Amino acid sequence: MQLRSNGVIHLSDYDKRMTDFVRSLAVFQLKGGVGKTTTAVNIAALAAAEGIRTLVWDLDPQGAATWCLGAEPDLKQDKVWRDGLPIGRYIHRTPYDRLDVLAADISLRKFHQSVADKRSARETMSEAIDMLGEDYGLVIVDCPPMIWPQIEGVLQSVDRILVPVEPSRLSIRAYEQSRQQLEWVKKRQWLPFVTLIDRRKQAHVTWVNETAPNIEELLPVFIAYSASAERMLEQRAPVVSCLPHVPMSRNYRALWEAIKQKLPAT
Ligand SMILES: Nc1ncnc2c1ncn2[C@@H]1O[C@H](COP(=O)(O)OP(=O)(O)OP(=O)(O)O)[C@@H](O)[C@H]1O
Ligand SMILES: [Mg+2]
Questions:
Q1: 21 touches 138 (CB < 8 A)
Q2: DSSP string covering 138-166, please?
Q3: Strand, coil or helix: what is 99?
Q4: Domains of the chain and any CATH numbers
Q5: Helix crossing, 149-157 with 118-132: angle to 10°?
Q6: What is the mean pLDDT of residues 199-225?
Q7: Which of 109, 172, 244, 266 makes an SS bond possible with 61, Cβ 3.0 to 4.6 Å?
Q8: What's 263's DSSP letter?
Q9: Which atom of ligand 1 is nearest to the CA of 233?
């Protein structure tokens, strides 16, 4: 399949600060509802606010990241992969400077059926990430909670994989399963971090102090459970943009700083 970039919004449209910053992140966790999309959208907003041209590539048929960023998809992303339509046509501007979204829609539910074999799925996604990297300083892929061959292709290609881990045995188990299943992912690619911590719960405090330190490659920051997450959905805007002073925004700024420390040098 040939990916054509016709229609991609070009660099000259944007502020050229930090154009030497070219990185890619996937937000991935087999366990659902742990804050992947919330993280993708907020980290993207922080990067864009810092001057980095940023794309959120929504790969989840729920299209939650697309929705959170205020975009309304008018095309089916599945067509990019089935018919080789130009990927740029699916990219929407958002209300935020330098932040675009490659919109997802329910057509992606059959995404895994759209490729002939695993190898071509991986190659296609790798090619797409490289191509998007020509126009964006940071590409953040919001993954669904599953391992399709295309998701494997994404995980193989990105610089780092952010894994939200909530304080539950199942969440840790899902991370461990991913590491076993995807044993070809390089150790340094994994960036797990703790989410949905409620400091009022003694069990969560104990979990943070005793269990979390055993998680391999854990980032030294965590995202607290916060009602601001719901307000973000009401406003269809990243919390760091619509509520920059709440603790959840501070948590995400700390996470973004920790991620930058772990990104490879260009
Ligand atoms: N720090 C937080 N505090 C409280 N609620 C949160 C927090 N982060 C996310 N949420 C809420 O948890 C729910 C799931 O979040 P989100 O959609 O980001 O998870 P996800 O891992 O992307 O889910 P899925 O696996 O379905 O894609 C949403 O209602 C979101 O608003
Ligand atoms: Mg999600």
A1: yes
A2: EEEEE--SS--HHHHHHHHHSSEEEEEE-
A3: strand
A4: 11-260 (3.40.50.300)
A5: 40
A6: 93
A7: 109
A8: S
A9: 31
Pick from 217, 153, 157: nearest CA to 190: 217
Pocket test residue of 27, 29, 37 for ligand 1, highest count of atoms within 8 A of CB: 37
Say if residue 123's pLDDT is above 70.
Answer: yes
For ligand 1, whether the C-beta of 45 sits within 6 Å is no
Q: Is 226 in the pocket of ligand 1 (CB under 6 A)?
A: yes
**Using 50, 70 and 90 to split pLDDT, how confident is the model at 20?**
low
Alpha-carbon distance 38 to 46, whole Å?
12
- pLDDT of residue 163 exceeding 70: yes
Tell me the whole-structure pTM to 2 decimals.
0.92
**Whole-number Å distance between alpha carbons of 88 and 230:** 31
Q: What CA–CA distance (Å, rounded) separates 180 from 164?
A: 17
